[in-house]
């Protein structure tokens, strides 16, 4: 990294990047790379429409499964279909957002293996922004769309005694949830610096996490619920805030105000993920191929 | 270049001739498929971890469902849980979400490398089938056993007592792999016309996930949808092997289940063969 940073200082005129913070610079670079991939995607419009539709359908299967289950039962773990739809919609939308923005990060292991990560290191742009924007896939709007549809269905059919706090909770939950999942994506990518072939471990937490959150916590073993509350805090994505909106109890005994912690949890997760990313990037050794 | 002249016209005859003489060749290809996938140990470990996590999540959802409705679809609780873990164990083996040879074959068609394959003194379809069988054998051992054992340790599963049931299950899985191959081979060949087969692949992938019984056992699908799902080839990938494992077929019923899988396998392989002959005769191979 040291050489790379030095290289940039030599090549780039001081005026261009010097006064910008590294964050702004990263976001700007991310936007530029994303715009490039968007142009490239739109060159094959038919293919884009088909894959976006496919993404919509395949992620929608999760809800189709739940509907098939409700063809046989009236409640699952004491929750009705609209209540589960709220949990599902919140989790799927939050995950869809972070998948759209950062989902390409699970390709990092491949780049480490085939040596193309080196190309990213010599460019005068933060590596995280480059890896995150790599092959930006707009088709992932499919998942967000179906998540929002299910969320809309839940809000239309649920009979909730709305308070201002509950109204605020909805956007808060989706955005913080997306941030928490985003931190998981970054931490997972950092792990791939060490275990290049292990991108599937990340899937267990990202795709597995969103599958878990689509069901009510009451059906899972206590230890599992504690694990996703205190160890990998996915419960803050949708379970805790959504149960507050529904006025239902959480299986693990926690005070009510905990439902408002998702932004704090997201911030802590990002700090930890950032540290993990730095450590991973420092430990990176090129395969040399 | 046109590949019209290089290919023999009578594929069926070539197939039988090859099968007699070159069994050893295809055995070597199959062994290569096995070894190739066995190389990626970390990836295998990671995959086992993910299968196990999903197995746990799905197991709890099934427990909630069967708590409400015991004997749903004719399965008791432990049979339902067994079904979950069989699904995780066979997900890669029967390539329900793709991940076999088809990406590679499609890429070879797109780049024109397929011309080299067509020159080889081996049959294209049998070559890839052998490789895919080797892959499936590795995935059954490498990705199937550990999640199944972990599932059996954590939950009360209905494991067959008789070794014959295990054997019958393995036969059914093998037939399921061939059916899965048959579908994916057809999809891969579509690249001769479409060049970018990603869309076709995605449709096949969606159908495989939905109709194999991976989401929910097919007896739980309502009315006509259930009947259609059970008649389609994809039920051979998970539903039929799982029912064999759970001892739902005995005697003639078992043979009927095999006949269903075998029938689809033969039909799909023949369709693949016909499509292959049309493709190699009519389509001009892409030049690089």
Automatic annotation (TrEMBL), chain A:
Pfam families: ABC2_membrane_6
Alphabetically ordered keywords of this record: Membrane, Transmembrane, Transmembrane helix
Keyword Transmembrane set for record: yes
Keyword Transmembrane helix carried by entry: yes
Membrane spanning stretches: 46-73, 85-103, 144-162, 168-191, 224-245, 257-277
Coiled-coil intervals, chain numbering: none
Family annotation (PANTHER family): INTEGRAL MEMBRANE TRANSPORT PROTEIN, SLR0610 PROTEIN-RELATED
The protein's name: ABC transporter permease
Source organism: Streptomyces atroolivaceus
Taxonomic classification: Bacteria, Bacillati, Actinomycetota, Actinomycetes, Kitasatosporales
């Amino acid at each position: 990294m040291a050489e790379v940073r030095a290289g940039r200082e030599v090549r780039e005129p001081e005026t261009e990047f010097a006064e910008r913070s590294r964050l702004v610079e990263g976001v700007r670079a991310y936007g530029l790379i994303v715009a490039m991939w968007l142009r490239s995607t739109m060159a094959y419009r038919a293919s884009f429409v088909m894959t976006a539709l496919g993404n919509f359908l395949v992620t929608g299967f999760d809800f189709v499964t739940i509907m098939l289950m409700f063809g046989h039962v009236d409640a699952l773990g004491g929750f009705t279909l609209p209540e589960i739809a709220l949990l599902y919609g919140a989790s799927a939308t939050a995950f869809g957002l972070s998948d759209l923005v950062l989902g390409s990060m699970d390709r990092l292991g491949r780049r480490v293996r085939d040596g193309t990560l080196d190309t990213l290191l010599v460019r005068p742009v933060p590596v995280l922004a480059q890896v995150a924007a790599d092959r930006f896939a707009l088709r992932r709007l499919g998942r967000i769309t179906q998540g929002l549809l299910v969320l809309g269905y839940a809000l239309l059919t649920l009979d909730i005694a709305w308070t201002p706090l509950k109204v605020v909770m909805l956007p808060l939950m989706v955005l913080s949830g997306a941030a928490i999942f985003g931190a998981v994506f970054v931490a997972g990518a950092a792990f791939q610096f060490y275990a290049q072939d292990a991108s599937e471990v990340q899937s267990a937490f990202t795709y597995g996490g969103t599958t878990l959150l689509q069901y009510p916590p009451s059906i899972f073993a206590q230890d599992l619920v504690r694990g996703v509350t205190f160890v990998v805090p996915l419960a803050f994505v949708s379970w805790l805030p959504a149960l507050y909106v529904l006025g239902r109890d959480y299986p693990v005994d926690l005070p009510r105000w905990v439902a408002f912690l998702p932004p704090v949890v997201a911030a802590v997760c990002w700090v930890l993920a950032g540290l993990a990313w730095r450590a991973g990037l420092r430990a990176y050794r090129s395969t040399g191929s | 270049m046109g590949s019209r002249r290089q290919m023999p016209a009578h594929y069926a005859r070539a197939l039988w001739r090859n099968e007699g003489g070159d069994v050893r060749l295809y055995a070597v290809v199959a062994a290569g498929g096995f070894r190739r996938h066995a190389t990626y140990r970390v990836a295998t470990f990671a995959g086992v971890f993910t299968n196990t996590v999903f197995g746990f999540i799905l197991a709890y959802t099934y427990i909630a469902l069967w708590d409400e409705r015991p004997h749903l679809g004719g399965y008791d609780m432990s049979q339902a849980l067994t079904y979950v873990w069989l699904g995780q164990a066979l997900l890669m083996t029967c390539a329900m979400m793709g991940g076999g040879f088809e990406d590679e074959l499609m890429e070879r068609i797109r780049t024109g490398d397929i011309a080299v394959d067509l020159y080889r003194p081996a049959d294209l379809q049998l070559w890839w089938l052998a490789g895919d069988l080797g892959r499936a054998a590795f995935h059954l051992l490498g990705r199937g056993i550990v999640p199944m054992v972990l599932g059996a340790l954590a939950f009360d599963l209905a494991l067959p007592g008789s070794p014959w049931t295990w054997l019958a299950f393995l036969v059914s899985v093998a037939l399921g792999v061939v059916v899965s191959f048959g579908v994916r081979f057809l999809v891969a060949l579509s690249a001769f016309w479409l060049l970018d087969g990603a869309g076709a692949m995605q449709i096949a992938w969606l159908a495989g996930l939905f109709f194999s019984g991976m989401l929910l056992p097919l007896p739980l699908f309502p009315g006509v949808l259930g009947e259609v799902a059970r008649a389609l080839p994809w039920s051979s990938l998970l539903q039929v092997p799982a029912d064999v494992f759970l001892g739902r077929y005995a005697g003639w019923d078992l043979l009927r289940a095999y006949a269903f899988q075998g029938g689809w396998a033969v039909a799909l392989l023949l369709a693949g063969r016909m499509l292959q002959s049309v493709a190699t005769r009519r389509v001009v191979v892409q030049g690089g």
